[in-house]
Structures are given as structure tokens and as C-alpha cells.
Amino acid sequence: SQQGEEDPQALSIQEGENATMNCSYKTSINNLQWYRQNSGRGLVHLILIRSNEREKHSGRLRVTLDTSKKSSSLLITASRAADTASYFCATANQAGTALIFGKGTTLSVSS
Amino acid sequence: EAGVAQSPRYKIIEKRQSVAFWCNPISGHATLYWYQQILGQGPKLLIQFQNNGVVDDSQLPKDRFSAERLKGVDSTLKIQPAKLEDSAVYLCASSPLKRDRGVGNTIYFGEGSWLTVV
Description:
The structure holds two protein chains of two kinds. Chain A is mainly β. Chain A has strands at residues 5-7, 10-14, 19-24, 31-37, 43-50, 55-58, 61-66, 71-76, 85-92, 99-101, 105-110. In chain A, 0% of the residues lie in helices and 56% in strands. In chain A, strands 2, 4, 5, 9, 10 and 11 form a six-stranded mixed β-sheet that branches. In chain B, the strands form two sheets. In chain B, strands 2, 4, 5, 6, 9, 10 and 11 form a seven-stranded mixed β-sheet that branches. The N and C termini of chain B lie far apart (37 Å).
């Protein structure tokens, strides 16, 4: 079963604009991760935020976590065409041994 | 550092035929995962190994899917007989042995093996 649900399902923006995608999850977590998947490729880890953190930055990425609302957001600033990809949030399964992924947000950045 | 290697990259088979996928994880990674990703969806965990033991195979359709990890390194995933709904990308991933449940481990994915069942 899927733990996280990303929103929106699809997002189209122009280069230079910011892209925000959201993730909602159902059960309590120790941490939440975001992954990117380019078309036809495997997933690549972007960032991990722990349950006791509210915000984390990595380059042009900013992730927030609100455990009271069971939600997280991923912000990509000054987007580039190369950011075109699907983005997934992931949380641990009940046993804490593996990751469960949402359905993802497909981002298209046009130049 | 070499990444997770998978083969074949692409496979087309007829329904009721069999197929096998191979995975070589990152050197030293104790945990190996097989995920199934149907087009337009997120990856779904099929099976997880730690060294050569199965940790979780609750979502593996055991009537047709099997997986093994001999010697705790390489792994193979087999489907026999294949059905049309098995058309998907099969992603192998690995991660180091988790030491702190609170920290969380990054999972490293291979490029996937694309299966089309016709």
C-alpha cells in the first residue's frame, strides 16, 4: 500500500520559475525522503528530512516537513529544463525496513 | 564507486513465457530490494533481502514470482509464467546495513529492467 501521496500529479512551468510539490502521508514517521526519476531511468535520492526537522536545504531544493499535518513539500527554485522529471516522496514501511513511494509528481520545465 | 547494475535493460516476451532479471548491488551493501514500477505509478516493493535472507516478501506474487540472493551479493528475480499485467519496470536497489532506525537509509537504484508482456 502507498504511504505518501504527491500533489499535484503533474506540473508544467517555465524555466526560471519555482516548482512546489506536496506530499501527504498517513502514519507517523522517523524521516521522509524525496527522490527524482528522469524518464527511463532509475530513482535518485535528493534529500532526507528527519521528523525533528522542519526545513532543510540542498542547493536549489528546499524541503519542509509538518508532522502535525503529516505533510511535506519540495520546492525547486529557479527551475531548469534539466529538472524535468518525476518526483517521489518516500517513507519507511511499518517495519521500518524499506521505503514506500507515492505515485509521484511529474514536472515539466520548458525553456 | 560503481552503481547498482541490472540486466537486461529491456525484454519483450509473450504471456505465459518466463523471464529472469539480474542485479548486482553496490559493493558492501547488505540490503537489496526489488521494486516493481508500473507506468505512471510509484515503485512498489516486491521483496527485500538482508545479506542472503529475506526480510519482506509480503507483496511478492509467489505463485509466479521468485527471487533469490545467493551468497548475499547478486540477485535474480524470475517471473514464470508472465501475465500481461506484469508489464512494468523492475527496479533493483541497495542500501547499507541500517544502524539507526531513526536516521533512515538512502536507497540507491539501478536503471531498471523494462518488461513488456504481449
